[in-house]
Every structure is written in C-alpha cells, then in structure tokens.
Design a protein that fits this description.
This protein starts with 5 loop residues before the first helix and ends with a helix. It is globular and about 70 Å long. With about 500 residues, it is mainly alpha-helical.
Length: about 500
C-alpha cells in the first residue's frame, strides 16, 4: 500500500478547497430560482459545452475506460462513435423543442402529451436513476483510493459528496457549469500529461508500445458479426445510440444546459462542443489503457500481483509520476466524478421543484420560496447519494450494479418520449399499457444481472447481451404503443 507524498497531498487538498471556494462564491450574488436552475440564460456556449462534456465524463469513465482497454481492446470505444448521430438528432429536434416550452423540466412535455401520470413516472425514474448513478460514482471514486492509500471508503464518499453538495446547493447551475468547465480542462490536461509520461518511460518508446499492443490485438473494435448476444461492434453501436439519445434527448442534466444558453444557436453549439469533444477524449483514455498494457508487459515486475484492471491507472499515477503531478492526476480523477455529481444534484433539485413540489405537493408555493426548495432538495439528494454510495460498499461489482439499476429506472423513458413525438395519435391509456409492457421486458432482461450480484443464479437465460436491455425496453414501448394506437384508431374511425 502506497503513501501519498506530502506535496501531492497538499496539491490535492488545495484543489478541493479551490473548487469549493469557487463554487460557493456564486452564492454571494443576488439570486432567484431562475438563476439557480438556468443561470438566467446568460452563460456562454463554450462553458455550457464544457459542462456537457464534463457531465459525460464521470470517474467511471476516467477509471473504467483505461481499465477496459488494458484488460481487452477498443471495443468499448464504439460507444463513442454513435455520439454524432445522437447529437445531430438532439440538435435538430430536441434542443429547439426544449427552448420553446415554458418549463425548466424535461418532463413537462409528457404531461401535455399523455397526462400527469407520464410526468410523474418519468421524473421519478429520473430521480432514482440519478441516486443510483451518484452512489456508483462516489463508491468507484473511493475504491482505488482505498486500495492504493488505505483511505477509508466511507470517508472518501462522505468528503467528496459533502464538498459537491455545498457548492451545488449554494451556487446553483452557474457554480455547477463553471466548476465543470474548470474540471473538464483539468482532467483533459491530466490525461494528456499522463499519456506523454507513459510514452517517455516505456523501454523502446512509443514504437515499442504500439508493437506490443498490435501483437495482442489491443486496437480491435470487436467482432463485426451481426450478433447481439455478445459485445460485438454492432451491439455496442446500437446500445450507444440508444443511451446517447437518452442522454442528449431527454436527460434533465442536458436539457437544463440547453435552456441555460443565451440563444438557440448557442444551445446547439454547446451541444456539439460537449458531445464531439468526448470522442477524442474517450479515445485518449482508451489509448492510456493500451499504453499501460504495453508499459507493464515490457516491465511486469512493476505491477503488483492481483491488481484489478480499474486500479492499474491509479497505480501508475501513484508509482510512476513525479511528485506534484501525482496530486494533479488524483485531482483529475476527482474532477471527473465531482463534475457529474454536481450536475446530478442540481438537475434533480430542479425536477423536484418543477415536477413534484410546484405541480402537485404545493401548487400555490410563493415564488420567493422556490430557492429554498431548490437548496433543500439539493441537500437531500446529495445526502441520499452519500448513503447510496455507502450501500454500494461490498457489492461484487458496483459497475454491474449501476448498469442493472440504470436499465430498470431509465429504460422506459426514452420509449415514451419517442412514442409521444413520432406516433401522434397515441392516447394516454395506450401509452400507459405500452410503458407497463416495456417495464416488464426491462425487468425480465435485468433479472439475471441482479440475481448474479446477489450471488444467485437466474432460473432462465436470455439470448441478448445485457446492454441491449434499454434497446429492447425502448422498442417494446414504441412498438406496443404504435400497434395499440393503430388498432384502436381504426376502430374509433369505423
């Protein structure tokens, strides 16, 4: 177990204090609820774009992508190749839609289209998804720090969670977006520096690294067979398209950024910047993982036995980087997690206020009380996220647990949105039946993964890869809704 040098510790602590101070500084301005949720529509496109990018890159990406490339190949990078398609659809259809409606909520449309149940269903699923996501990020952030330095998992989860809660609760979306922009630049710079040092320190240089990687097929994008039961190129591409459509099209975290822009054009520019920037940066993370494979293949004595793939990158940071840079890179890992956490807290508070408190719990809430509700909601979601992160401690695979929970909580929302937008004649009761059917399909496909996490075996198997859960759930809702509206539409006409 390594010990973090004093200078690296000081750099890391200084980073946390600066981010906290910068975020809190926004609370000293005169603020309204609109400022808290949309920044008053005065934020520049580049900062919003960097915030979208930073939201996309969590600590899961920072640790899991290099670990994935180190362990296997570039198959996971195919996910990024679907982003331009999803971004184009969002810029063409979703961004103008959200800019035109008189609501801060992404789920306002569903109530107009299908009634109150649809808005309650989608917003509740969103909140549950964010809690699971924040808990997984906090836990996966704490795990390598525990194994490398012996830091208490509970302490790291609580410390990180509380710092983010404080500046997200007090500073609102302006604090979130500006700290995201800073953290995005830090994590990109840290990753580039780290890759350069790997190239510099490997015996034989970059040419040797590529020689070793090529000999072990580390740059493969996976099989091109039309097989959706395993991690082929096409399966990952389809999965990525649906996930990214959900992210850019209906996720409150992204929708709030569209609304925060000064104009429609700025909203579109920020979407393109945030989405397209992720592609080369994800390639950078995969290249780091491949480079680490070459580095430790040529010097296997430098790698401890039994180390997990997700911990290889943090181990390199601690053991191979010069003093000072180690603290910076650890700060980069925390930057990736904190940017996503702050976004989830802020957007969840907006959903609680818009979709639950002002709509159903207290419709006559005075406008001057909105800001208090937003801050209390931010605090509540942050504290709950810390508890969820602590609950993840001990699961066999936090990443698998997150994927399983995300499939169940979020898999049906995209299908409902697409049904409402594309099949205009679908009625509320038909959409409800379609959603119920989709949730059953999602639950059935997720059950083997959930039972596996609990140490039990599923009584049945299913031929599709677990990543296809959101695809099948979305398609089920859309197809069932389309069929019902077609059948009953004809009956009504006759």
């Amino acid at each position: 177990m390594a010990e973090l040098p004093i200078w690296d510790t000081l750099i890391f602590i200084l980073y946390l204090l600066l981010i906290l101070g910068f975020g809190v500084s926004f609370s000293f301005r005169k603020r309204t609820a609109k400022d808290f949720t949309t920044g008053g529509g005065r934020l520049p496109a580049w900062a919003i774009g960097m915030s979208i990018f930073a939201t996309f890159v969590s600590s899961i990406s920072f640790l899991a992508l290099p670990g994935n490339a180190y362990l296997s190949n570039w198959n996971g990078f195919v996910f990024s190749l679907s982003i331009p398609i999803a971004a184009w659809i969002s810029v063409r259809y979703f961004v103008p839609h959200y800019r035109s409606i008189s609501s801060d909520s992404a789920y306002f449309y569903l109530e107009e289209r299908f009634g109150p149940w649809a808005r309650i269903y989608a917003s509740t699923c969103y909140l549950l998804t964010q809690l699971a996501r924040m808990g997984a990020i906090l836990y996966l952030l704490a795990l390598p720090m525990h194994f490398l330095f012996g830091w208490s998992i509970a302490w790291v989860i609580a410390m990180t969670g509380l710092i983010v809660v404080i500046y997200a609760m007090l500073g609102g979306i302006e604090a979130v977006i500006w700290t995201d922009a800073i953290q995005g630049l830090i994590l990109i710079g840290g990753a580039i520096i780290c890759l350069g040092i790997i190239f510099w320190k490997i015996p034989g240089g970059a040419s040797k690294l590529f020689e070793v990687a090529d000999a072990n097929e580390k740059f493969s994008l996976g099989s091109f067979e039309w097989d959706f039961g395993s991690s082929t190129f096409w399966m990952i591409l389809v999965y990525g398209l649906f996930i990214n459509l959900q992210n850019f099209g209906i996720d409150q975290s992204y929708v709030q950024r569209y609304i925060s822009a000064k104009s429609d054009q700025d909203a579109k520019r920020s979407t393109w910047l945030g989405s397209l920037l992720y592609i080369p940066v994800s390639a950078l993370f995969f290249l780091i993982g491949t480079a680490l494979f070459g580095f430790y293949q040529t010097q296997p004595y430098l790698l401890p036995e039994g180390i997990q793939a997700d911990s290889v990158f943090p181990h390199f940071i601690v053991s191979e980087l010069p003093i000072g840079l180690t603290g910076l890179l650890i700060a980069s890992i925390f930057a990736a997690g904190m940017s996503t956490l702050s976004t989830s807290i802020n957007s969840s508070a907006t959903v609680i206020l818009s979709d639950h408190v002002k709509k159903y719990l207290n419709p006559n809430l005075p406008a001057k009380s909105d800001l208090n509700v937003l801050r209390i909601s931010s605090l509540a979601m942050g504290l709950l996220a810390i508890l969820v992160g602590l609950a993840f401690n001990g699961v066999s695979s936090a990443l698998d647990a997150w994927w399983a929970l995300a499939s169940i909580f979020s898999g049906g929302i995209l299908g409902l949105f697409l049904l409402g937008i594309i099949v205009r004649r679908t009625r509320s009761n038909q959409a409800a039946i379609a959603v119920l059917t989709g949730v059953i399909v999602i639950s059935w496909m997720s059950l083997p993964a959930i039972l596996s996490l609990a140490g039990r075996t599923s009584p049945w198997g299913q031929p599709l890869h677990s990543n296809m859960t959101i695809v099948m759930g979305t398609l089920t809702i859309f197809v069932v809704g389309f069929v019902l509206s077609s059948i009953f539409g004809r009956v009504n006409k006759s």
